[in-house]
Every structure is written in C-alpha cells, then in structure tokens.
Specification:
The chain contains 5 helices and 3 strands, in the order αβαβααβα. By secondary structure, the protein is mainly alpha-helical. The chain has one domain: Arc Repressor Mutant, subunit A.
C-alpha cells in the first residue's frame, strides 16, 4: 500500500483532545432535549476558544436541542456537553430545560379523544 492509497476519514483531532480530557460538563443542564440559544454571534478573539465553540454558536443562533447540536457538529454528545458548559461559563449561551413530561393520565385522555374522532 503506497502513501497515496492511505485515507483517513476520521477527525484530525480526537474528541477527548477537544475537551482537554474532560469527560463531564460542570453543569448538569444539558439534557438531550434541552434547548440552547446563543447570546452572542462569535467568540473570536476570546482566550481559549476552539473552532468547535464557534461552530456550536453558529448552530444555536436559533434555539436548538443538545442532540441536534451533536448531530450538526458530528461530535459525540459528551463532547458537545463539555463544550456547551464552556460556553455557558462564558455567558455565551442560554439553556432552557425541557418542560415536564405530561402525566400518563393526560396521555390516556388525549388518546381517548383521538380515538373518538
């Protein structure tokens, strides 16, 4: 196999390197369905800003879920949570936790109503 035949489809920097070995966000607010919205357009010029932070800010100019951010950046959810934690510490994002799930009773009543149609 020659050097020209070698192809690496993986990222240049491994995910754990992006977050400097951190495995958890300092905040426990990043549920998969929590909505994140950027409060600033860019963090260029800020100290310790990675391109991935900027990518996340671009994606969450409008409210978007944590899971959608993971898919949009092609990064593992754990890495996205750590990076979002950095942005939250910087005051660059706001997080809205998902509302409470409906009670089983309410779901039964809705299903009964739908069946009656």
């Amino acid at each position: 196999m020659s050097d020209s035949d070698w192809v690496d489809d993986g990222p240049l920097v491994r995910p754990y390197a992006l977050v400097r070995g951190r495995t958890r966000a300092r905040h426990d607010v990043f549920d998969l369905v929590a909505f994140v919205v950027a409060l600033v357009d860019t963090l260029q010029g800020w100290i310790h800003i990675e391109p991935e932070h900027t990518r996340l800010l671009i994606l969450c100019r409008k409210p978007v879920s944590v899971s959608e951010l993971s898919a949009g950046t092609n990064l593992p959810i754990g890495v996205v949570r750590v990076l979002l934690g950095d942005l939250l510490d910087m005051g660059a994002i706001r997080v809205r936790e998902p509302s409470e799930r409906p009670s089983p009773q309410l779901i039964r009543e809705v299903l009964t109503g739908l069946r009656a149609l």
